[in-house]
Design brief:
The chain is an alpha+beta fold. It is built from 10 helices and 6 strands.
Length: 250
């Protein structure tokens, strides 16, 4: 699975005095900048693409059973293929939240202190039980992991899974998450533009492929996105996860 790279050093500039936007955006000039209409078009394309792959299998299964009921086992195999195809896409999307091998304890402890300064108490509790950070933005609710991020769209029905990473093979897990969080806060649309889309589909389908602890973060994001958003909400307020009821335990 290919991943977009975000150098850790440049991400640290997200909190300093610098022009808006991510410098990594210049590395993908052919990509249109992500916004709400583009995300809706991308979602429709993924839905059409999935239907293009699965509908012929379902139609062939129905035709076989209608013409020759004895071919029912073959029809079952075709239906199984029709089910597996979107499940494989969802499994690829779930991969952006999987953790890497644990790093040195001392380095990880220091990285957790940095990450703890960037998020509030409820987000810290959610990170303790899931290893993920929830951030609310203008495009939806973001679930940030070491290898990428999942965007839960308003309405909590669709998710977009993005592969993106902070460069540096020896970075602790919390440091990787902190770098991605800073990049997201610097420019949410550039972040979604630089990252590589791994999956776009239904929340329930992605949830089936997630680990139990990661489902806690997805459920929290869905609760946030299912609530009506007030008009005129500024970016600073929009990205605050204060309204998230993070689980207290598994």
């Amino acid at each position: 699975m290919s991943t977009g790279g975000l150098p850790g050093g440049s991400l640290a500039l997200a909190t300093g005095d610098r022009p808006a936007g991510l410098p990594e955006r210049a590395s993908v000039p052919w990509r249109p900048r992500v916004d709400d209409p583009l995300l809706r078009r991308v979602g429709r394309r993924w839905t059409i693409g999935t239907a293009w792959h699965t509908t012929p299998l379902i139609a062939a299964a129905a035709l076989l059973v209608t013409l020759a009921p004895v071919t029912a086992p073959v029809a079952i195999v075709l239906l199984a293929h029709a089910w597996i195809i979107p499940e494989l896409y969802a499994s690829r999307g779930a991969g952006v939240l999987r953790s890497r091998a644990p790093s040195r304890r001392g380095a990880e402890r220091r990285a957790l202190l940095l990450l703890g300064d960037l998020i509030d108490e409820r987000a810290r509790r959610l990170h303790e039980v899931s290893g993920l950070v929830l951030e609310l933005g203008e495009l939806g609710a973001w679930i940030i992991g070491e290898r990428g991020a999942v965007l839960v769209r308003p309405g909590a029905r669709r998710v977009n899974c993005y592969c993106v990473r902070a460069t540096g093979s020896d970075l602790p897990a919390a440091d990787r998450i902190a770098h991605l969080l800073l990049a997201l806060r610097c420019d949410e649309r550039d972040f979604a533009t630089v990252a590589n889309l791994a999956f776009s589909g239904a929340c329930w389908r992605l949830r089936r492929r997630l680990r139990p602890e990661h489902r806690l973060a997805l459920d929290a994001a869905r609760r946030v996105c299912s609530r009506p958003r007030a008009r005129g909400t500024g970016s600073a307020a929009a990205r605050s996860p204060l309204a998230v009821h993070a689980p207290r335990g598994r």
